[in-house]
Amino acid sequence: MSVEIILPKGDAGRESIYRFLYEIWSDEFCRSMEGMDHRHRLLKDALDESAQHFMAVDQSERVVGCVRVNVLGNSGLAAPLGMNFRQSTLFELFPGEGICYASHFAVAPDARGRTVASLLIGQLYRYCLNAGASIGLSYCALQFVSFYYQLGYRPYTENFRIDAGVRVPIVHCLRDLGYLTKIKSPLARFCPEDLDDRGAAAAKLVEQFPTFENNDFSRMKTHRLWAGIAHINPGDPGIARDTFFAGLSEEERLLVGRRISEVGFSPGEYVYRRGEMEKGFGVLLSGSLGVEVAINGSSRIINVLQPGEPFGEICSLLGGRRTVDLVTLEQSRALFFPDKFLERICRADTGLGLKLIRRLLKTLAFRFVKLADTVIQDAGSARDAVCVVRPPISQHPDADQIKSRVESYRYDSLGDQEGEFKRLITQATIGEDIEFNVLHNLGLRDGVKILDLGSGPGVTSLLMAKRMPATTIIGVEPEDLLRSKAETLIASQGFAERCRFVKGTGNRLPLDDDEVDFSYARLLFQHLPAPLEVLAEMRRVTRTGGMVVVLDVDDRSNIIHPAPEGLETLEKRIASAQAAAGGDRHVGRKLHGYMHEIGLQEVGVEHVPITASALGRQIFFSIVYSFKRQVLERAGELDEQTASLFHALQDLIDQPTTFAMTTVFVAHGVVP
Asked: Going from the N-terminus, what domains does the chain have, and what CATH number goes with each?
C-alpha cells in the first residue's frame, strides 16, 4: 500500500477526517464520544477548531489514518481532561506554546501495521519540534502502553478513566535526545543535535511529578519480565497452579513479548469496570486483584487473583461488555495484550498459540470448579454467605468513626471510588465561572473566611483560593480518604497556608461560634437525613451579617427530550433508594423554606439552568447520572435491565438532537 501524509484541504478535507473518525470510534469500537454527530456521521469537538490535522491517504485518496495536535498556548484543555493531565502545573513549568497535545490518532482496520502509524507519528513529532514545543502530551489505552514507551513517552501522573476504560496519561520530552537514543526510539533520528535540551524538560517534570519515571525500556527488560512471571507459583493454600506463561521456551517468550504493555496501579484503582467494551486482556505481574460485585447494597470481593493469573479474558474471547469489576487490592503491576492477541499468536506460531489457549482453558476450568464448590458448600445459606469481604489491605479504616455522619453519601461504600473521585473533580470545575458569578452577585468578596462544608477532594476550596488570594478556607469533610486527597491537592498548588481541612460532619461542626464570614455547602444537602440541623450549625458558625449559601439540585427539574421509555420510573427508584439511605433527590425546592425555618433573613433562591449542549454531553451524563447508578448499585437494585437503561440514556444524551437540562438551586440567607 502506497501511503502519503498530507494536510487536509479546506473544510472538505477536514470533514473527511471527521467522517473517518466517526467510522472508527462509533462503527468499529461502538464508543460514544464528545462531539459525535450521529445524524451526519461526524466526530468533531472543540479542539478541532485550533488543531493541526494530518491525514494518511492511499493512492485512491481514501483516508486510512489521521492524527491531530494542539499547541496548548492557543487552546487549553477543558475540564476534566485538563485536570487529568495536571495542565495548570505543566503551565507553571513550560510556556503554553511549549506544550503540544496529540489526540484522535486512528488507523483504518485494513491499513493497520507499522507503515501508516509510523508515518503519522513521524510527521507529528517533526511538527511539534518545528512549533518550538518542549513536551508532548497524550494518553493511551492499557494495551498500547509499551508502544508509546518505545517512542519515548513516559508516565508522569495518575491514570484516569473515560467511558471506555482506564487511560494512562503520558508525556514526551521532545528534545531529550540522550534519552531517545538510550532507549533506541525511532524518533531519535528526527531530532537535530542543536535542539537537544540535555534532559532539561525531564528534570522539571521529575521535580514536580514523583511518578514521572525514566523507563529503561528495552526488549531485554521485557524478556526478563517473562522469565520472572513464568516461575511465580501463585495459588490457593494447598493447590499448586501453574502461571499463564509457565513452560514457555525462550523463543516463545520473545515472540509473545513483542506485543505486551506493562502498567502499574495504585491500591483501590479499578482496572476494568462492568459495562465497558474495550477489548484485550491482561496477566497480573505483581500485587493482587479483587473480583468485586455489589450484593445487598454492599461491595464485596468474591475472588482474589494472584500474580501469574490472567484477567479480563471473557470479554476478549466473547466480545461484548465487561462482565465484572476488577480492583487492585495493593500496589500492583500487570501485563496487557491487544485485542485478538491469541489469534495473532496462532498465525505466527500455531504450536505456541495452542499452548496458550490450553493454559487459558485450564485457568477458566479451575475457576469454574472453585465456583461450583463454593455454591455446593453454601447451598441453602443466605446470599451474603458466599461472598468474601474485601481484604484489609484495601480497606480505609476509620478508627474515629463519627456516629452522626451523612448516610446518603458514603464515599467508602461506593463501588467505583476512582470514577466517583473523578466525577467530584469534574462536578466542581466544569461550571466554575457560572458558579462564582452567582456567588459574587450574592456578595462573596476576597479577604473573608469561608466554610466549605462537605469539601470532598478539595477542588472547590482550591478554586476559591485561586480566585481570592486574601481569603482563608476551612474545609469540613468526614471521609478520611477524600480529606487526604484534598490536602495533597492544596499542598501541590501552594495554598496550604490559606486552606485547611478538618474532620467533621454538618450537624456537629468542629468550629467556634461566629468563626466564619461565609458558609457554603455545595451539592451536600441532597445527602442529609437532618438538613435543618446542618443548616442551623452553618448559621451558628457564621458571624452576624455573614451569609449562609446552599447549592443543590432537584431531580424533578431534569428534562430529557425525547425521553427513553422507563426514565420516569427509574428516577422514582433512584429517589426512593436515596431516601432510604437518608437523602433527598428533591431538596432544591425545599431550601427556601429551610432557610426561613432556621431564622435567616433576606432569604432568596437563584435558579441556574444547565444544558447538555452547553456543558458537554458526556460530562452532563457523568455529573447528572453516574452517581445515581451507584445509588442503585449500593442498594442492590442495579439489575441487568436497569444497567441497560443507563447505557441507553447515555447514548441518547450523546446525540446532538436530544435536549437535556437540569437546574441548580442556590439558596442564600443572611445571619441576623
From this structure: 4-208 (3.40.630.30), 219-386 (2.60.120.10), 411-554+584-612+660-670 (3.40.50.150)
Q: For residues 166 and 155, what is the distance between their CA atoms, to the nearest angstrom?
A: 14
CA distance 52 to 8: 9
Residue 149 CB burial class (10 angstroms; 0-12, 13-18, ≥19) = buried
CA geometry: angle 94, 95, 99, nearest 5 deg: 75
Contact, 412 vs 403, CB < 8 A? Answer: no
C-alpha distances in Å from residue 65, one per residue of 7, 12, 279, 365, 656? 12, 16, 21, 41, 26
**pLDDT tens track for 487-529:** 988 898 889 999 999 999 888 899 999 999 999 999 899 988 8
Q: What distance separates the 2 farthest-apart alpha carbons in the chain? A: 82
At position 169, the amino acid (one-letter code) is P
- Helices 417-429 and 480-492: crossing angle, nearest 10°? 50
Q: How far is CA 171 from CA 122, 139, 195, 205, in A?
A: 16, 8, 18, 9
More confident residue, 513 or 643: 513
User: pTM score > 0.70 for this model?
Assistant: no
Tell whether the model's pLDDT for residue 241 goes beyond 70. no
Span 629-648, average pLDDT: 84
